[in-house]
Amino acid sequence: MSTHATTVQPSYLEDTGARKGLMAWLTSTDHKRVGMLYLYSMISFFFVGVGIGFVMRLVQLTRFQNLITAETYNALFTVHGVIMIFLFVVPGLPAVFGNFFLPIMIGAKDVAFPRLNLASWYFYMSGAILAILSLFTGGGAPDTGWTFYVPFSMRTGTNVSLAVFAAFILGFSSMLTGINFITTIHRLRAPGMKWFRMPLFSWSLYATSWIQLLATPILAITLVLVILERAFGIGIFDPVKGGDPLLYQHLFWIYSHPAVYIMILPAMGAITEILPTFARRPIFGYKAIAFSSMSIAGVGSLVWAHHMFTSGLSSFSVMLFSLLTMIVAVPSAIKVFNWVSTLYKGSIDFQPPLLFALTFIFLFCIGGLTGVMQGALAINVHIHDTYFIVGHFHYVMFGGTGFAFFAALLYWFPKMFGKMYSKKAIYASWVPLFIGFNMLYFTMLVLGMMGMPRRYFHHLPQFNTGHEIATVGSWFLVLGLFMFFGTLVYASLKGEKAEDNPWGGVTLEWTIPSPPPVENFEEIPTITTDPYHFPQENEA
Amino acid sequence: MDWITQASTSAQKSDAVFFYVFGLSVAFLIFITALMIYFVIRYSRKRHPKAEQIEGHTGLEILWTTIPLVMFLTIFYYGWTNYEYMRQAPRDAMAVKVNARQWSWSFEYPNGKQSKILYAPLGKPMKVEVRSLDVVHGFFVPAFRLKVDAVPSHTNTTWFEATKLGSFDIECTVICGVDHSLMLSKVVVVPEDAFKAWYFGGDDAPEPKPVPDPPKPVAEFTHPGLAVLTAKGCLDCHSVDGKPMVGPTLKGLFGKQEVVLSGKAARTVTVDEAYLRQAIVNPMKDVVRGYPPSMPPTPLAPRELDDVVGYLKTLK
């Protein structure tokens, strides 16, 4: 494992081409640098989203909505949703860790289309800039919620068209990344890297990429129709002209439900990498996990109408979509059982990435179980469009994808930056993160059961106490986020030099230096074992 | 459930399913969490230095595919059958049209009678036909576990049978513009005979109330203002003893700080004599937040107005 001692290649962090400094980064097609560009831009947008969420919680602290007006509040939750979904969780783990580690994990020098990869980032940034422009131009920030439901989104005077166009551009970034990863996995696996010898993170990216490729065009078409409807009044959604508002909801969720799996599958993949490393044993049920990723991607594409149970669908559709929703819960449950079993009879080295991975499992279980509650029709009628939904999807998107993102960042940070962070500071940040998270979002579940609707500027007096608890929770959460990222920023600047394999992992990224050299490998490795094969004494 | 009101037959159905799923979920979560913590402690590197290289177990995979599948299917079935009950109105249900618009609700009964508050008889099924005049809205009565979207060009129906007297919130659940969170009203559940008296009573019939006040002879009124309040029907919606009804209670109102909405803007006012006079004569100008904007302007003779204001000052 120490063959790199004779490395002659420079690290990817050093400029080797003609350009230096920032320009060298902005024009680099190195998959690792593209991954880092995504990391920095996504974290920046994430903090903008956090800031907006923080203000919304302050507004709900009292019944005196003196801070801002209702117009501003409606714009805030719309922009919070657009930023967090399109700029953070959808690109999410694939854009950062997929770009950085997919080629390394399958033994390739880069992705299949390096230039297209950089172009994806430029699409992403263009979409992001347009989204931010839409706040300050035209009729002001959109106020429709991130779902842009017609006919309201057609009638409102706010800048919906530009925001929707931004989402359209962001879709291209997502599709191009999908194509790139699928081709990379099919064509660039190292010799001996059979499909079932790939690390499971690659499998999760493969499943995700197919959804990105197949579902995103439907969103793109829908968004174009909204723009045409607003600009020319073509009447495809407008009931006054014979259009159907429910058609929009179908088209929107045909993308946006599978998008939820775009967000969560790579997160599950990262957790699947972390557990075996710290348990020093193979993942339990490799094939079950790989197939469950693919079946989540497949069945997950057929459950969209569970967002529309109260919209007046026929009894038969409602029944069918509830049934399919229950079925898609099964592969997620299979993953949870396999993860927990991976700890069984392992030799567990408790480290920060493992703490965050286990926290992910706990929070994701709450997110998943509250999802099953909504899939049950008799309960859905009550909790649909209430704070219960808001609490539920924050458990999945933040407790799930967000905490998996944190776990993955802790796991791969030493490899990406070549530096190690203070483990004590990370453990300390976990405390306010965990307490604040549950105070904020569990309270939302309770408020939703009590009948607090989502997207409400004013709330009725019976919800005061709940809102106060949730707001205090948000303060802990933000404190934890600053401690967490503060620790990592400090480590990236002043941290101790990290070892090449600080956790004792066995997938390919741990066989190369930290930070990785420009072309990843001195020589493309030949794969002879399963991905989580920990060498035993008797075979050394 | 004490912390949420359960006031219809559908609410009982919905809550039964909820507790079934909630019980299973809590059991699952505790099981998984306890197992994780136990493994992390039991198989820590110190206690268990050498990991066993276990790759999987087909029997277990089948087991934990089948058991969740069966459990999820029971949840589906239980949820679906109860939903069918919640959605299919009985044939004898009275059909009320619910009209949603930015940003108010109005209700139209079969005989053409209209109201801004939904009056419903206790223990009788009522079918609601929800329509929208502009954008998508959501008709939500938490106490009944009842929700259906108001979609333009569609009519969506659902129904309820109230099991409790009282006044329950109606809220809009689909973002519909600036005043989405003020698109509120109430369902007022009244005894059947009170409902009939109102329903068949023509335009002048006083609005029904959940609990009829004991009749008071005029001579017993302790204050002339109370007599005016009773005569003008104010006490149908406002109590004088602190009990919440459709409108805010009058007890302790004088001198209190209230948040009111003047049009779209919220502001805090101190309830003084000038405010009281304006709130009676022109109630729509400043509406106390959290209550439906449904009080009719009440013209009073100057003497009557003086009596009412004088009386309200005494209600500490």
From TrEMBL, chain A:
PROSITE patterns: COX1, COX1_CUB. Residues 19-528 form the Cytochrome oxidase subunit I profile domain. The keyword Membrane applies. The chain crosses the membrane at residues 37-59, 79-102, 122-141, 161-182, 203-228, 248-271, 283-304, 316-334, 354-373, 393-413, 425-452, 472-493. Keywords: Electron transport, Heme, Iron, Membrane, Metal-binding, Respiratory chain, Transmembrane, Transmembrane helix, Transport. It comes from the Bacteria. SUPFAM superfamilies: Cytochrome c oxidase subunit I-like. It is a multi-pass membrane protein. It is found in: Membrane. Pfam families: COX1. Its main location: membrane. Belongs to the heme-copper respiratory oxidase family. This is Cytochrome c oxidase subunit 1. The gene is coxA.
TrEMBL record, chain B:
Binds a copper A center. PROSITE patterns: COX2, COX2_CUA, COX2_TM, CYTC. Residues 220-316 form the Cytochrome c domain. Residues 1-90 form the Cytochrome oxidase subunit II transmembrane region profile domain. It catalyses: 4 Fe(II)-[cytochrome c] + O2 + 8 H(+)(in) = 4 Fe(III)-[cytochrome c] + 2 H2O + 4 H(+)(out). It is a multi-pass membrane protein. The chain crosses the membrane at residues 17-41, 62-80. It is an enzyme of class 7 (translocase). The keyword Glycoprotein does not apply. It is found in: Cell membrane; Membrane. It comes from the Bacteria. Residues 91-201 form the Cytochrome oxidase subunit II copper A binding domain. Its EC number is 7.1.1.9. Keywords: Copper, Electron transport, Heme, Iron, Membrane, Metal-binding, Respiratory chain, Translocase, Transmembrane, Transmembrane helix, Transport. Belongs to the cytochrome c oxidase subunit 2 family. Subunits I and II form the functional core of the enzyme complex. Electrons originating in cytochrome c are transferred via heme a and Cu(A) to the binuclear center formed by heme a3 and Cu(B). This is Cytochrome c oxidase subunit 2. The lineage of its organism: Bacteria, Pseudomonadati, Acidobacteriota, Holophagae, Holophagales.
